[in-house]
Amino acid sequence: MLRSHRRRHRIAALAIVSGVVMAACASTGDTPDADTDRGTGVDTVQRFRYPVAPESPAASDEDAEASRDAIERIGVQLAVGEIDERAVLDLTASGDARHAWYVADLMRFFGAGDNGGNQLVEAFEALTGTSIADDPDSERSVWLSATNHLIAWDTPDYPGYREDKSVLFLLVEPAWEPFFVDADSGIDWRHLSWGGVLIDDRELGDPDGCPQGCIPALDDPATTDVDGGDWYPDDAVVFGIVEGGDALAIPKNIAEIHEMFNLTLGDRRFGIPYCTLCGSAQAYRTDQAVEQGAEQVPVLRTSGLLSRSNKVMYDLRTRSVVDTFTGAAVSGPLQDAGVVLEETSVVRTTWGEWKAEHPDTTIIAEDGGIGRSYPLDPLGGRDDNGPIFPIGDVDERLGVQELVLGVIAPDGTAVAFPADRARDVLAAGGEVVASGVALVADGGGLRAIDATSADPLGSHESFWFAWSQFHPSTVLWQP
Predict the structure, then answer these.
(1) Full domain range(s) for residue 465
(2) What is the DSSP string of 185-223?
């Protein structure tokens, strides 16, 4: 009965998203043209430069009360899928740039040309004193442009923003409520956006998909030996993991469909998220969380939410959000226990090179063990031309989608190694060392070790924009 009740709410809520312009995670959709991209591995155009950030002065008590009244009126109308244009005008009259965050959130669901959408653009520009018309992203999505501006400016939010955002987002997915009600969470609500799909809250081991539209994790998938993996092309990408002498290859095409795996390898329990938008597969030892105070081994799931284009994952059992890039619990009981999941290395390589290096490896079965078929390129190049969700400004030391191997050095320093260049240096017999971290080749891919002790360090490849925004002070190795 609870699930049926939730679905009725979802159906009603999804009626307001006719203006959504971004494709859902793990689905195909239009990709931006290369000449309007913020930059791939090699920049093709001059990057867009964000204007000077607007001032965000504290509002007077009278202005704050008027803004609160306007936002509450907007929230009432959202329940029926409409924008209260009079209330938007009243909110704009505050002149408080911090309210642009709420306006941008509304843009996610009401694009330009939709009911109230054009007025939201006008409200954003009035509150910030900035026109977004010069930003190439505004032609793709006014929401994308507006949110990128706010992130780049690091605009503060206003008191009550979390609660106001929850009213809007819980219309789409009521099951997100545990995330929003945790007032002590470490979630930066400004950066939280909707990825276009709903929450995966299926029980562990549920083999069925998500008729309501989620990205279904694959739990304890069936595997085969090398001979049984002859269905997968030798030149296709796999994500390789070794634990306790056991090796596993996860085909990229299966990872692009499920984006999350919970499985056992080498007698350890793992949660393995794959963020298609960030190009990153990571492996966390989830059983280690019990040693840190978790009552049960976490079961990782995809929430359907994003933070600066990175998937927001959560623990099914406690409804705790876990930062995908760092493994740190940022809400719920796992945050209260101080859980930080331990990361091990994921090697990005090809199936041919991985099985040559690890002849005893297993590989996830062609049907995943659930009788499903997987196209070899399920996304159809959707993410090839730069981020399609907000990330703000970018670190220009590399192209946004150049792959880097990221690792945290023994002294806590974040280090990034351009992956292709590092492989070339190692193949030529050279050394790749920076900040106490050394790289070694493994089956056509890379893994990191302590340069002094040779102890393994958790590492994974990702797009540069993702690594650099979650580790903005990262050291960048250059050959």
Answers:
(1) 403-476
(2) ----GGGEEE-SSB---PPTT--S--TTSB---EES--E
